Amino acid sequence: MLPEVVKLHPPATHFAIAMPVALLLIEALYRRMKREPDVIHEVFTHISFLSVLLASLTGFIAHEPLEERLKQVPVFSAHEILGFSLPFLFLVISAIRLFKRKDFSGMVRNVYFLLLLLGVFLIFLQGRLGGKIVYEYLIE
């Protein structure tokens, strides 16, 4: 049986997957329609950052009671590195959107889009690693 504190992490990770994917879809739709990003785009950008940060924080809290068991898991170190890195990537994405609000076009928007695409790819990889940890090593 897993400790109660560990159970905070799964709901947080679902938001950390859903929000960036929704943002990527919004960005792709706006690009397709040749529409300038609006307040909804900006709000989803910042919510995406906060959801990734929350998933990382709950992951940090959840790993402590399982630390001894997790040391034996081959993919845990990669999951841990991504867990600490993804909030910084999404902080950069959020900062670009915030500080380039008035000049969010051309090269700035392309860099934003590429970083967002990378972020969503890494989130899927992170989820895959997390799933391996849970379903192959923790659930007995």
Automatic annotation (TrEMBL):
It holds the Pfam family DUF2231. Keywords: Membrane, Transmembrane, Transmembrane helix. Residues 8-138 form the DUF2231 domain. The chain crosses the membrane at residues 12-31, 43-61, 81-99, 111-129. This is Uncharacterized membrane protein. It comes from Thermocrinis minervae. The lineage of its organism: Bacteria, Pseudomonadati, Aquificota, Aquificia, Aquificales.
